[in-house]
Specification:
Elements lengths: L1 H19 L15 H19 L6 H25 L2 E11 L2 E6 L2 E7 L1 E3 L7 H7 L5 H13 L5 E5 L11 E6 L9 H7 L1 H7 L4 E3 L8 H7 L3
Parallel strand pairs: 3-6
Antiparallel strand pairs: 1-2, 1-5, 2-3, 4-7, 5-6
Amino acid sequence: MRKKSVISLLTLVTSLTLTACSFQFSTPKDFPQVPDQVQEISVELGKEISDIVDSTDFTDADQLDQMTTEVVEWAKDYAETEESISKFQKATLMRVVDGDTIVVEIDGEEYKVRLIGINTPESVASEEYLEKTGKENSQAGKDASEFTKEILKNTTTVYLEKDISETDKYGRLLRYVWLEIPTNADDLEEISTKMLNAILVKEGVANIATYEPDTAHEEDFLQLDTD
C-alpha cells in the first residue's frame, strides 16, 4: 500500500513539475516554442526520479519521507533550470550586417536582430538613414563590423535574450545575443565572455547606449566599459 502511495506521489510531483515549468517564450508570432534543452532535461527528470524510487527501500516512514524530500528537491532544481533556459531563444546565425546588427533564422524565418544596450559606428547604413540621422558610414564602423564577424566566424548558433521591447521602430528584434547559454545570466564574468553585446563594450568596439525600458544589463555594461 505504501509503495502504491509513493508512486502516486511521484506521478503527481512529476506532472505538477512538467506543467508548472512549461516554457512560455515572449517571442514574435510563429517562433518555435520548445528548444532542444527541454527534451534533454525531461529525459534527465525521468532518470533521476526512477533512480530515487529504485534506490529506496520502502520499509519505514523515515525512508519514505527521505525519498519524498529528494523528489521534491529534484523538482525544484528542475524548475529553476527550466526557468533559466526559457529566457533564451535558440537561433541560427545567418550573417553579420554591421557591428551591432545580425541576421538569424528561427523556424525557417529570417529576422534582423539589433543588439540592445550598445551602439557601434555606422558602416552600411542607407543614404536615407544617414540623411535623417546626420550620421555617416565610417572606417570605424567597418572595423566594428569586422570585429563582430571575427567573434562570430565559427558560430552557427546563438541564444537571444529579450529585455522589455520586442522590436525597434525599424522592425528589428531587440535582443542580448549570447554565444552560449550562461549558467548564471547575472554573473558579470559570464556576461563579459558569453554575451556579444557585453564583449563589444568590454573590447571598446561599442559604446553603451541604453534606452528605457530596455536597461536590464546597463550596470553590467558600465562595469565593463574600458573608456
